[in-house]
Amino acid sequence: MSISLQSIQPLTHAYLESLGLDWHTDFDGTDYFAADLVHVNQREADAYYAAANELYDMFIAAAEYVISHNLYAELGIPSNLIDAVKTSWDRDDWHLYGRFDFAGGIDNKPIKLLEFNADTPTGLIETSLIQWAMLKYNQLNEESQFNNVYEALKENFKRLLSPKRLVLPAHINNTAADYLPVNNNSPAQNILFSSIAGSPEDDLTVHFLRNAASEAGFHTDFAYADEVEFSETDGFFKGEEVFGYWFKLIPWEYIGLDEPQLAQILTNISNNQAGIIANPAYTLLFQSKAIMKILWDLYPHHPLLLETRFTPLPRQAQAVKPFFGREGGNVRLLDAQGKTIAEQNGDYAHFNNIYQAYAQLPTDSQGRCYQAGVFFAYEACGLGFRRGGAIMDNLAKFVGHILA
Rounded to the nearest 5°, which phi and psi values hold at 12? Predict the structure, then answer.
């Protein structure tokens, strides 16, 4: 049995570019967006929703366990970010969004968690906007999706803005925080969005998030990361304007390993309550694939989990994954005898590995594999699929879905 697909007219390159999306063609000349929709029934959509919500609670418990037992080294957390992780966790800094990657959920296969991209997940524009446009462009019902990503993000920005959740910078003397008005003159209501120059995908993602924040009531602005100025006592600056919040589409592990001076500055800003960073530093605990081993220790044989260890699993097929990595880089698949049956090159070989029980991805009639991605912003809020080989690499295609 294979999954059910519905062919559609693909969005033209001109249409995609009119939306600001110009990464529509992969480097091999093929279209990034598939001209198909995956049929998902309501029961399957509800199961993805429930799985992500349950798993998020489990990740919270696993992170608490790591922090209380000082297991940062076991997760590969750079030592210069441990204080930032602790501070953001103790202060309950708000997690804006992340993406769970699942095997199964369709084609009568059980949902199994592969990993949680909690810090800087890709695929946000594709899931929230493009697959909705696919339905509209093909004169299908745009509501026939598990996809309320934008609305969920906007509500989460409202939660971030809530004075009851907000830790004001120490130099702002306001004892009646519950009555702090939303206005453009208070740093506590200002959020600066940043990406690294040279990545159109990151730029569009950041501006998409910025629009949601603006609609939620924030005063927003944008600056590339190298244009931002930092003050350990006053927060984040663009020119003369001060911001109480900084959203950075830069992975925390990159900051810790490649920008140690910035890591120290951000830690001091956080410790001094001079500003709040999103996504918060504790999402690095979720981002490390090593937490999958912690989850298995805490919830052995949980139906949503795959057995995961720091050493090879005896006598079973498994995936070998670096603690930190993207687009399948340096992932290997082993058969039950330990023989490599698939592998992907990458830039992450210097990280330690986890060994995770292998889960067969659903396939179509042509043998192509499908991996589900479910975005999470306070709750599960959107589903999309990637199509490729047994290891999803940077040539994997994005496939939308329709409730059928």
Answer: -70, 155
Any idea of the CA torsion for 210, 392, 397, 124, to the nearest 10 degrees?
-10
Q: Which amino acid is at 293?
A: K
Residue 278 in contact with residue 246, Cβ under 8 Å?
yes
Task: Tell me the per-residue pLDDT of 261-320, one tens digit each, with 9 for 90 and over.
Answer: 999 999 999 999 999 999 999 999 999 999 999 999 999 999 999 999 999 999 999 999
CB–CB of 121/206 below 8 Å?
no
Backbone angles phi, psi at 167, to 5 degrees: -95, 110
Alpha helices of 182-251 — where are they, by DSSP H? Answer: 200-216
Sign of CA dihedral 19, 251, 115, 281: negative
CA distance 94 to 168: 14
Q: Phi, psi at residue 113, to the nearest 5°?
A: -75, 130
Same domain, 248 and 213: yes
- If we measure between CA atoms, which residue out of 86, 54, 32, 111 comes closest to residue 295? 54
212 with 345, same domain: the answer is no
Regarding pTM above 0.85, the answer is: yes
Total domains in the chain come to 2
Contact 189, 183 (CB under 8 A): yes
Take residue 335 and report the two structure tokens written for it: 């058969």
Q: Do 141 and 153 have their domain in common?
A: no
Domain boundary among 226, 260, 286: 286
Distance separating alpha carbons of residues 354 and 343, to the nearest angstrom: 15
Comparing 17-21, 65-69, 216-220, 343-347, the range with the smallest average pLDDT is 17-21
* Nearest by Cα to 291 from 58, 48, 53: 58
156 CB-side CA count, 13 A: 25
Helix (H, G, I), strand (E, B) or coil at 238: strand
Burial degree of 301 (CB within 10 A; 0-12, 13-18, 19+):
exposed
Residue ranges making up the domain that contains 308: 5-46+102-145+293-403
pLDDT digits (tens, 9 = 90+) for 363-397: 999 999 999 999 999 999 999 999 999 999 888 99
Given 244, 260, 286, which residue is the final one in a domain? 286
Higher pLDDT, 199 or 165: 199
